[in-house]
Amino acid sequence: MTQPRIVTIGVYGYSEQEFFAALQAAQVDLFCDIRRRRGVRGSQYAFANSRRLQAKLADLGIAYRHVAALAPSTNVRHMQYAVDKALHTAKRRRAALDPAFIAAYAQECLAGFSPQAFLDELPADVKVAAFFCVERAPEACHRSLAAAQFAAIGLEVEHIR
After folding, report:
1. Are 100 and 144 in contact (CB under 8 A)?
2. Between 20 and 30 A from 32 (CA), which of 67, 75, 130, 144?
3. Domain containing 59: what range?
4. Full-model pTM
5. Residue 80, C-beta contacts closer than 8 angstroms, at least 6 positions apart
6. SS3 assignment, position 19
């Protein structure tokens, strides 16, 4: 079986049309939502709320999967929020993750995650799997940490910007 290519994408900074066009341009056929709470505040991003998102992906022929194992818990997310608050940085403007968040996420989510086992469970015809969360910059989002697990086993990883 050929291993799929891995891409990541966030929603901030995209219009609805641009977001879905980016997925199509990357030839995504499996969309992996790695958010705990699958909603986004603000009408500008209402298309990324779970029900609307899943409906649009289905219309485009892109399979949807919620990968809760890669979603940080509320406690871990709040570690990053506290750092953001101390640095007076809005979540939508964050440029990097705090080392304490990275360590906690690695322990909570990645320690028990096998990228190869994940791949082995995918349908054989998946060519491009997209890992999704909301932040614009992958460096500011846990999706980059999840994607690094796939890069570590030799898969091509691209961050759609």
Report:
1. no
2. 75
3. 5-159
4. 0.94
5. 94, 97, 98, 101
6. helix
